[in-house]
Predict the structure.
Amino acid sequence: MKYRRVLLKLSGESLAGTRKEGFDAGVLASYARQIKQAADAGVQVAVVIGGGNIFRGIQGAGRGFDRVKGDQMGMLATIINSLALQSALADAGARCKVLTSIRMEPVGELFSKDKALEYMAAGYVVIIGGGTSNPYFTTDSASALRGIEVEADVLLKGTRVDGVYTADPEKDPAATKFTALTFDEVYGRGLKIMDLTAFTLCRENGLPVVVFDMDTEGNLGRVLVGEGIGTTIKN
């Protein structure tokens, strides 16, 4: 395996599959199978999931919600998604723990670096819900922060597209894919991979990012063994 310990970032919208919201059982099962295979191969896996399939704080602010309350609702959405993935992993036969950035036992244990590392070393998949626990920070920022905290070798950003392109490939058929970029090139080109807070955290702490298509089953395993799929961003 190329990577010993990884932070896998999944979007909430991806859990909805072709639906606009909620959960797609097939997507959850596919993600669970891929993550279990990685854990079975000896890779230590931590996961951060967004909450966009349920509620997104910034959208709530546009509907009249107080932004802080909206973001707190979004944090709870990420925990619901964490529990959904935990259930799918259990069905797949994987051992899994949910840690939350907000104290809410018995839903999940309060996150700490030491606890996360202890569980991962024991072979558990660790799902970290609740974002950073602070408003105005995205789950991209949470994934960068947790990836740095648990000393991950790489942040794997699972998306619906197979990497970073010059333009949105779903809108521009002439868009071309990058296989590798530096953080400075991403800044210079104005590419939208994750929010700037998350991106800067990765850059300043030397955490590489791989953007890849998680919806094609088997791709997570291919990334982990170093196959050249997706786009790698590093210093």
